[in-house]
């Protein structure tokens, strides 16, 4: 059967006259034909006059891989665990009853596990009156000293948490605000009167603690809180709230 016009004969490719096909790898050349000489390596090209030679590029040391967190959902918890292992406790945000219980648990655990000081990082902390007094009571009974370092704004009853620490320092960006806590009351007139009396007692405890650490009168502390007095880090040192500026470990 002859092939169709669309299917040409598989003729081998034509070889130009005078050209020899080199033998394949492993096949010796036919007799009578000398082997091809090896090609010598190309000589180095000397640098052109007037152009200085380029220096050798130094070997770059290998860079160790950076540590990454494979699971970002667990990233904050792992960081806090590593800080806790170094006896560093973070207190930030709103200090309510639940946060105060968690903070007290961490402080009591570190107090029971070792005799080294505890570093309390107070970052932008605000607190309710009752939770602040709860943490202050635990700080008063710890065996080990607590070194507090403040960053951001510290306002209201949260100043009592700072005042209960044995050593108090602040970062340059720290701002302190003496202010009265905001409270809401619901219930009958009798319960409101009882609640108001309880709040006054708690406020007196807070102002007494601030007065004891600053060396000022309670009435002066109360007056500054009523008008919402702001203090920078340097002013807080003069006021007596902190001992000095935070330094490198």
Please give the CATH class of the domain at 76-245. Answer: Alpha Beta
User: Which superfamily, in CATH terms, is the homologous superfamily of the domain at 76-245?
Assistant: 2-enoyl-CoA Hydratase, Chain A, domain 1
Strand arrangement within the widest β-sheet reads 1-2-3-5-8
The description of the largest β-sheet is: 5 strands, parallel
Q: What letter string, H or E per element, gives the SSE order?
A: HEHEHEEHEEHHEHE
Just name the CATH architecture of the domain at 76-245. Alpha-Beta Complex
Bin the strand percentage.
Answer: 15-25%
Report the principal-axis shape. elongated
> How many strand elements?
8
Specify the structural class.
alpha/beta
> What is the number of helices?
7
Unreliable stretches (pLDDT < 50, length at least 5) are none
Q: End-to-end distance, in Å? A: 95 Å
Helix content: 25-40%
Radius of gyration: 40 Å
Please tell me the overall pLDDT: 81
CATH topology of the domain at 76-245: 2-enoyl-CoA Hydratase, Chain A, domain 1
Descriptors:
36% helix; alpha/beta; 249 residues; 2-enoyl-CoA Hydratase, Chain A, domain 1; single chain
Question: What would you say this structure looks like, in words?
Answer:
- By secondary structure, this protein is an alpha/beta fold.
- The chain has a domain at 76-245: 2-enoyl-CoA Hydratase, Chain A, domain 1 (Alpha-Beta Complex).
- Helix content is 36%, strand content 16%.
- Helix 3 links the parallel strand 2 and strand 3.
- 21% of the residues are buried.
């Amino acid at each position: 059967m002859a092939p169709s016009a669309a299917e040409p004969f598989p003729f081998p490719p034509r070889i130009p006259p005078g050209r020899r096909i080199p033998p394949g790898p492993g096949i010796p050349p036919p007799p009578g034909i000398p082997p091809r000489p090896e090609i010598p390596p190309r000589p180095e090209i000397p640098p052109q006059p007037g152009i200085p030679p380029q220096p050798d590029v130094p070997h770059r040391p290998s860079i160790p891989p950076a540590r990454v967190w494979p699971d970002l959902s667990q990233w904050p918890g792992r960081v806090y665990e590593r800080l806790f292992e170094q006896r560093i406790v973070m207190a930030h945000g709103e200090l309510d009853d639940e946060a105060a219980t968690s903070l007290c648990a961490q402080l009591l655990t570190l107090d029971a596990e070792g005799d080294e000081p505890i570093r309390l990082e107070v970052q932008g902390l605000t607190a309710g009156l009752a939770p602040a007094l709860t943490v202050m009571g635990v700080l008063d009974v710890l065996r080990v000293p607590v070194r507090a370092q403040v960053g951001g704004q510290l306002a209201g009853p949260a100043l009592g948490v700072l005042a209960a620490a044995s050593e108090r320092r602040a970062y340059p960006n720290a701002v302190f605000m003496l202010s009265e806590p905001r409270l809401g009351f619901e219930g009958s007139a009798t319960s409101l009167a009882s609640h108001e009396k309880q709040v006054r007692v708690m406020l007196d405890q807070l102002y007494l603690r601030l007065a004891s650490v600053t060396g000022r009168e309670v009435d002066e502390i109360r007056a500054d809180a009523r008008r919402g007095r702001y203090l920078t880090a340097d002013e807080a040192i003069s006021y007596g709230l902190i001992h000095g500026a935070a330094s490198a470990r």
